[in-house]
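Q: I'm writing up a methods section and want to include an example of the input and output format. Could you take the sequence below and give the corresponding predicted structure tokens, formatted cleanly so I can copy it straight into the document?
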Amino acid sequence: MSLESLGLPGLFLSAFISSTIAPGGSEAVLAYLVSQAAASIGLLIGIATLGNTLGALTTCWLGKWTAKKYPAKHLSQTKHQKALLWVSRWGHWALLFSWLPLIGDGLCFAAGWLRLSPLPALIAIMTGKCLRYTAIAYAFI
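A: Here is the clean output for your methods example:
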């Protein structure tokens, strides 16, 4: 059974999974549901944004939890160091790009690691993800 066939719950699940460390295809699910007129565009964008934002917040929480056990100097992978550098330099603004494949997960993880304030982080993450899903939805009308 495909996530597309599950309709709105499938879109939410796909968006959530896509925003954690697991790969997902929420853009394809959204495009399919938009092309099938499965629900209003606003509802589809809202559900995808909510699922993807909650997944990103889960990644932030994992970063915060991990930071308790391992200080930043123990991060050996270059991509982790880059994400920490970006978030350290740009703060919450860096999270507007949390929708980017591969990079976005690192930014959210770094935001949790660096213990950014939750409300501005939530607003930045949600804004970036909503803009992305809006562009995708309107491309498939």
